[in-house]
Amino acid sequence: MRNFLTNFLDQFEYPEEAKKAITECFDILAADEEAMAVINKHLDSYAAGSNDEYIPMHTAIIPVAMRLGTPWQTARLVMDILLSKHLKERYKAKGISEQIWFDTVSEFKYKLFETYNTYHIWGCHVTTWWKYFFEMKIFGIGRFQFEMTKFGYTYDDDEKNIHLTPDMKAVSVHIPGGLPLTKDLREESYRRAKEFFKDYYFDGSDKVLFMCISWLIYPEHEHMLSPKSNIVDFMHDFTVFDRIEPEKSHDLWRIFDDAHILPYNMLPRNNSLRKAYAERLCEGKKVGEGVGFFIR
Q1: pTM for the complete prediction?
Q2: Are 115 and 168 contained in the same domain?
Q3: Count of structural domains within the chain
Q4: Which of 9, 119, 240, 260 is at 20 to 30 A from 74, Cα to Cα?
């Protein structure tokens, strides 16, 4: 286990400080009988084909990590890395390339930095949705991650002859951090995803319905950000037809890191995105997410 862990950290070029924190966490867990019982139980079950281990695994390791005085965020990341060995084997058995495995579990490193910037812990604080990686429902393919889903909305445009219904098959686009949103990277990712999911569209259609729900396609970006922004350019990949505006945004940590808890008038404005969001929030306006689609 330790060899796989350290090789993984080297392969994905984790920072030395992060490597040290993660391997030290593993050594603490490995020296404890209860911790190893939790790890072995869930790893063995997943290796045997179960898809029901992910949430129980994370729930079980938290009190163990707290008892041992090691961050639960780091302990959960250790378990995800170890679990990824068996995910790699599942990919191979399905004939899925190792590159897609690499792209998928690169998410661990992206979230590692987000967690460190927000909480100053080398680990991951938001991992529960990763269960869809291990259930092989979300795949990293180049710049983006993609999920087989249903559209979930009704959309009609008579002029363009577009009529979409909630039960239509769609491929949902998820946007991990850590990489730029350049046009070339986006287009390459869409192209590869269309090829990868062609069997999902077994009705013979040569078109794929891509959809996205994200703060990155929030329609007010048209007014908040420069038209030359990669975020605005990415938003233009989609027909954005709806928005979600909660009373309090749950995405501010993605923009402001550990400063997201500050009063709005104290939020940092050291880049154009932060400045735009801080000013809008100080004006008492809401921020949120957009809902959009495109067909390729």
Answers
A1: 0.91
A2: no
A3: 2
A4: 260
